[in-house]
């Protein structure tokens, strides 16, 4: 398969590349074998032998989005139930929905099938999923993600402590055995080739308040034995942080670390109550910065700005500080703690929250209570749209440990095809308007080639939606429904 056209990507934080008139070749296994300007000598040779599909002007390929944190069963009530503090919300809404799907596999399949379809529509090519307690229900989730064709890390939730007596595993040993059984069964069922093995198990202790030390220790050992990835929640809300400190006498970081659950394979969601002044460190008395500590451990963070507004309202995630410490950071929707399944919403919210943080910092500077330097680099606390696009694409891929997120030889061809402007109609697509181009007298569609600008991509970032998404490709395969 061969395409010729415009490619957009973020190879580094804050850097946007618009590669106009490039040629890409994808082999039968879905890997990129050639990626160069269409007028290079090797590209010309390829074009002599093969006829590429030419993207129309105003259209480009972009790496798909990566959602690092999503509770699949909570998609059942997406958009409802955001009226309580975190621990109360879990008991009233989250546990109830997860228990319902564990009882009703028909409903579970319906919910998970629709979830997969919605993710494709939203441009999400890879997702890290929390499931439920029951292994069979999580296998349904894995089957539906494999069927829709996106990359998925599926986690059977582990918890031997619960405020809901009907939704808990009977002991730590039972929970550890169940996690092992689910992961092995998923690996066994997933007998696809390397190219098509899209779904993987992920060790999933829900969070410290629902897991005994014995369970955490066993799950850390299981991950180390199997090489499976790990996901959980860390320092999400004030009530959760206070509960852990009161009951365990420590903060989340030392608890997870001593059980071997902060590793280069780990993604921790939220981390809103971590800051460079935190002392939540294990066996590192010389360090006062938990972000530097997480970077040293290789642990990634899933930043979920929308749900943080609801459940961490008094504290915003220190995104700029985490990035300056070179922590791997990506974005998550946190359905249903966040109400939007669209990573574009997460990007926009992340920028908005960071701008509020910067405004608050500048106010402290004006009042003389803080120096002008925001952090160790002196950069403002605000992030811009290009930085958020990096987090949604390559940043998220790096956190997941997948080779997606950028177009290069040897990487899988994962892409979303975005159309901003229709030259034949001389109109923007969906909610986008480009008045200067509409006024052009151009009659030849080819004269619109090379028209894509940074400003046009920014306009899509601000106002675009699924109407601009013409297609989704994962591992070289065009997904149905895209």
Automatic annotation (TrEMBL):
Pfam assignment, any one: Amidohydro_1
UniProt keyword terms in alphabetical order: Hydrolase, Metal-binding, Zinc
Cofactor(s) this protein cannot do without: Zn(2+)
Transmembrane portions of the chain: none
GO CC terms in record: cytosol
Keyword flag Cytoplasm: no
Protein name stated in the entry: Amidohydrolase-related domain-containing protein
Organism: Lentinula raphanica
């Amino acid at each position: 398969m061969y395409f010729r056209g415009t490619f957009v990507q973020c190879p580094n934080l804050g850097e946007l590349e618009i590669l106009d008139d490039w040629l890409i070749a994808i082999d039968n296994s879905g890997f990129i074998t050639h990626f160069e300007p269409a007028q290079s000598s090797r590209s010309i040779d390829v074009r002599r032998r093969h006829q590429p599909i030419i993207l129309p002007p105003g259209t480009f390929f972009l790496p798909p989005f990566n959602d690092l944190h999503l509770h699949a069963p909570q998609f059942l009530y997406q958009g409802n139930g955001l009226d309580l503090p975190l621990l109360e919300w879990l008991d009233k809404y989250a546990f109830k929905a997860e228990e319902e799907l564990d009882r009703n596999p028909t409903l579970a399949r319906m919910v998970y099938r629709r979830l997969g379809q919605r993710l494709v529509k939203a441009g999400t090519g890879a997702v890290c999923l929390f499931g439920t307690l029951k292994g069979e229900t999580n296998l349904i989730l894995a089957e539906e993600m494999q069927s829709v064709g996106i990359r998925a890390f599926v986690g059977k939730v582990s918890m031997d402590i619960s405020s809901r007596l009907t939704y808990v595993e009977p002991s730590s040993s039972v929970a550890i055995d169940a996690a092992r059984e689910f992961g092995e069964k998923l690996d066994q069922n997933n007998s696809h080739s390397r190219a098509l093995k899209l779904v993987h198990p992920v060790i999933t202790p829900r969070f410290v308040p629902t897991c005994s030390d014995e369970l955490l220790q066993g799950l850390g050992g299981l991950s180390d034995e199997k090489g499976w990835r790990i996901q959980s929640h860390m320092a999400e809300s004030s009530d959760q942080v206070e509960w852990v400190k009161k009951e365990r006498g420590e903060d989340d970081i030392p608890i997870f670390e001593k059980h071997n659950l902060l590793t280069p394979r780990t993604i921790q969601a939220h981390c809103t109550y971590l800051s460079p002044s935190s002392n939540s460190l294990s066996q590192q008395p010389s360090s006062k910065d938990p972000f530097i500590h997480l970077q040293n451990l290789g642990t990634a963070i899933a930043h979920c700005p929308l749900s943080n507004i609801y459940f961490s309202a008094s504290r915003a995630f220190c995104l700029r500080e985490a990035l300056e410490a070179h922590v791997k950071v990506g974005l998550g929707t946190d359905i249903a703690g966040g109400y939007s399944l669209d990573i574009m919403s997460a990007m926009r919210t992340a920028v908005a929250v960071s701008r509020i943080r910067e405004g608050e910092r500048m106010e402290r500077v004006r009042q003389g209570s803080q120096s002008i330097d925001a952090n160790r680099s002196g950069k403002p606390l605000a992030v811009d749209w290009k930085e958020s696009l990096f987090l949604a694409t390559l940043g998220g891929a790096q956190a997941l440990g997948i080779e997606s997120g950028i177009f290069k030889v040897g990487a899988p061809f994962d892409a979303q095809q975005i159309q901003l402007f229709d030259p034949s109609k001389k109109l923007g697509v969906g909610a986008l308007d480009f008045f200067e181009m509409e006024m052009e007298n151009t009659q030849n569609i080819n004269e619109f080639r090379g028209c894509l600008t940074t400003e046009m991509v920014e306009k899509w970032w601000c106002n675009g939606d699924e109407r601009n998404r013409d297609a989704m490709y994962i591992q070289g395969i065009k997904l149905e429904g895209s």
